[in-house]
Design goal:
15% of the residues lie in helices and 33% in strands. The chain contains four helices and ten strands. Strands 6-5-4-3-2-1-10-9-7-8 form a ten-stranded antiparallel β-sheet. 32% of the residues are buried.
């Protein structure tokens, strides 16, 4: 729990480092970076065949690494519906043996709630065509990432839960 509070404090300063006009970018084209690891989270337009529950899709890459992680944000069903993010990677035999493969054919590396950070406030992540927020908070993502056996083959930098908006893909 203290790490989440630390991440909120760290991300509260994002408003001062963003380029002008960053709020004009649609979420489906937003590019975010995790300052500590250099990981790049690139959101993409939803395909025509996307599930009605899908809110966003993205790729996650690391500087100098060839492995591409993929993921999506979907809204949960039920009384207390929230956006739920999943990051996936290509399965190895250990993942298959431990039944980590999901319906996508890939293995889940992390899943959990995701929060949009803007103007010192946290809110739900916006829909694909809505304006991108200044930052994103993925609670406990950094811990899950460094526990993934493949992590240190893609980077030697420390993972973190906060991402800041750095650009908008065309």
């Amino acid at each position: 729990m203290p790490r989440t509070k630390i991440a909120f404090v760290a991300v509260a300063h994002l408003a001062f480092v963003l380029p002008a006009g960053a709020t004009e970018c649609a979420m489906e084209r937003a590019t975010y970076v995790a300052p500590r690891s250099g990981a790049v989270l690139q959101f993409l337009p939803l395909p025509a065949h996307a599930s009605p529950m899908d809110n966003n899709i993205f790729t996650l890459t690391f500087p100098g690494a060839s492995e591409l992680l993929t993921g999506d944000v979907a809204w949960t069903n039920g009384r207390r519906t929230i956006p739920y993010m999943a990051v996936r990677h290509a399965c190895n035999q250990d993942d298959i043996d431990m039944e980590r493969r999901d319906g996508s054919g890939l293995c889940r590396l992390w899943d959990g709630s995701v929060y949009a950070l803007a103007g010192g406030n946290a809110d739900w992540i916006p829909a694909a065509t809505d304006p991108a927020p200044e930052g994103l908070l993925l609670p406990d993502f950094g811990d899950a990432l460094i526990q993934w056996p493949g992590y240190y083959s893609v980077t030697d930098r420390y993972a973190w839960d906060a991402f800041k908006l750095i650009g908008c893909a065309k």
